[in-house]
Amino acid sequence: MIGNQNLLKTNSPHIIDFQVIGSSELGYISVAEAQRHTPFEIKRVYWIYYTPNNVQRGFHAHKELDQVLVAVSGIIHIKVIDQDEKESLFVLDDPSKGLYIPRKHWREISFSHSAVMISLVSQIYNEQDYIRDFDEFKNYKE
Ligand code: TYD
User: Please, is 100 exposed, middle or buried when counting C-beta atoms within 10 Å of its C-beta (0-12, 13-18, 19+)?
Assistant: First the structure.
């Protein structure tokens, strides 16, 4: 299912339902085309895997980077915090779903051992775009 709401480039994190093609007999394909299924041009893809069970990663925000996370295997729990310290909790346990996290949102991500997380990203890697201190994140204005 693809709803128009999926493409809204809002300032709120939200779940994207990707298209599901296939059947239980053959298996499934989900697909993300830039700007059709993600609300930005995809400039980078990275993936995280073989984490210890329940390990937590993230603990940063980005200044200008938007991204969509997909648990293509396993389960990941994500806490997203905005600059007003409003928290939103998401569970990704279905490879047809993604979580859109806009820029200027803090994220804390917990992985099951079997989790493989793909991240579709609007920018190439740039450490200068990271905010790794929570107080600095809350006060970041630009
Ligand atoms: P980081 O984004 O901090 O991972 P996490 O928040 O999941 O712990 O990245 C960890 C390290 O990997 C950091 O030293 C930068 C490096 N890295 C790259 O070189 N390129 C990339 O595209 C990414 C995502 C990370």
Answer: buried
C-alpha of residue 2 to centroid of ligand 1, in Å? 30
Q: Using a 6 Å cutoff on CB, does residue 46 contact ligand 1?
A: yes
Number of independent structural domains in the chain: 1
- The answer to whether the beta carbons of residues 65 and 129 sit under 8 Å apart is yes
120 is in which domain, residue-wise? 3-139
Query: pTM here?
Result: 0.93
88 and 131 in contact (C-beta within 8 Å)? no
CATH number at residue 129: 2.60.120.10
Q: What is the pLDDT of residues 90-131, one digit of tens each?
A: 999 999 999 999 999 999 999 999 999 999 999 999 999 999
